[in-house]
Design a protein that fits this description.
Elements: E1 2-7, H1 12-22, E2 27-33, H2 45-48, E3 58-59, H3 62-65, E4 71-74, H4 78-91, E5 94-97, H5 104-113, E6 118-121, H6 127-143, E7 148-155, H7 165-177, H8 182-185, E8 186-188, E9 202-208, E10 215-221, E11 226-232, H9 237-250, E12 256-258, H10 260-263
Parallel strand pairs: 1-2, 1-4, 2-3, 4-5, 5-6, 6-12, 7-9, 8-9
Antiparallel strand pairs: 7-10, 10-11
Helix pairs in contact: 1-9, 4-5, 6-7
């Protein structure tokens, strides 16, 4: 039985992860952590997340909770997750990080910490999206420079970072397949008389509206045709189930930094 500590437990993803853990064999909730000033601290986390009483209090400190777990599943934000990784690394506890918005400097620190622990970090834990990561690289390689790459993403009105981590990863994958530096060719939104599109740019557009769970489209636009690859999430369940699959997988792996491609054997 894998013992999971859910961090950000009262959040949208945290609550979904807890519900999905309860429906999955071989894994159990061993702790639940929220920010130290959360109004529901010390209440039964099952009641907070709509599961009914499960006998586990919501606590405001990962240090205490981590002792009971084999793996931390953290959907909070990049800054908080990085702090939590410091704790996991010091204790040798595995971590599944779903938070998005890590800067390149933060990612360097994550890679350093993962030398002493097992960590899966993926801006999108969905199985379908990870298959999309794989095919987008292959399509970009085959179509080459003749096709314009544009990436569209749409999310709910509450999302705080933009573009989504998944859209950024799709841009990086396409750029790398086309031997470009995404940081140089990424164009984030367009306005005004900006002139013709440069052939090597990779356009990034973000929509925020209502309760859209998450949609990503990569357009490869040629002359006379275009190829589009789209993934739509119908609910948050797919991310939660991917994170649980990662948690069960990672505890059998050596120390290191992994992503969902590793978990799913797509590499
Ligand atoms: P949310 O705001 O609903 O939940 C975040 C939770 O983290 C909140 O309950 C907040 O109180 C808690 N939190 C903040 N500081 C904390 C701290 N110091 N310790 C413990 N908990 C703390 O947001 P959400 O929609 O659940 O998304 C959370 C993160 O997961 C975001 O970065 C989002 O982009 C990402 N996300 C990733 C995937 C994926 O597949 N990787 C899928 C969906 C969302």
């Amino acid at each position: 039985m894998v013992r999971a500590i859910v961090v950000g437990a009262a959040g949208r993803m945290g609550a979904t992860v807890m519900r999905a853990i309860r429906e999955t064999d071989g894994i159990e909730i061993a702790g639940a952590v929220e920010r130290p000033d959360h109004p529901f601290l010390n209440r039964d986390v099952g009641e907070v997340s709509g599961l009914g009483e499960i006998g586990i209090p919501l606590v405001g400190d990962i240090e205490g909770a981590i002792k009971a777990g084999d793996v931390v599943i953290d959907f909070t934000n990049a800054e908080v997750s990085l702090r939590n990784l410091e704790v996991c690394s010091a204790r040798g506890v595995a971590a599944i990080i779903g938070s998005t918005g890590f800067t390149p400097q933060q990612m360097e620190r994550v890679a350093h910490l993962a030398k002493k622990m097992r960590c899966v970090l993926s801006p999108n834990m969905s199985v379908g999206v990870n298959v999309m990561f794989k095919v987008v690289g292959e399509i970009a390689r085959i179509l080459g420079d003749e096709y314009d790459v544009e990436i569209l993403e749409a999310h709910h009105r509450f999302k705080k970072d933009s573009p989504s981590g998944t859209a950024m990863k799709l841009g990086e994958i396409a750029a790398s397949a086309l031997k470009r530096d995404f940081h140089q060719v990424g164009v984030f939104g367009r306005k005004g008389v900006i002139g013709e599109r440069k052939s090597k740019e990779i356009g990034m557009q973000a929509v925020r509206a209502g309760d859209i769970v998450g949609e990503h489209t990569v357009i490869f636009g040629g002359l006379g045709e275009r190829v589009e690859v789209t993934h739509r999430s119908h609910s948050r369940d797919n991310f939660a189930r991917g994170a649980i699959r990662a948690a069960k997988w990672v505890i059998t792996q050596p120390n290191g930094l992994y992503d969902m491609g590793d978990v799913l054997g797509l590499k």
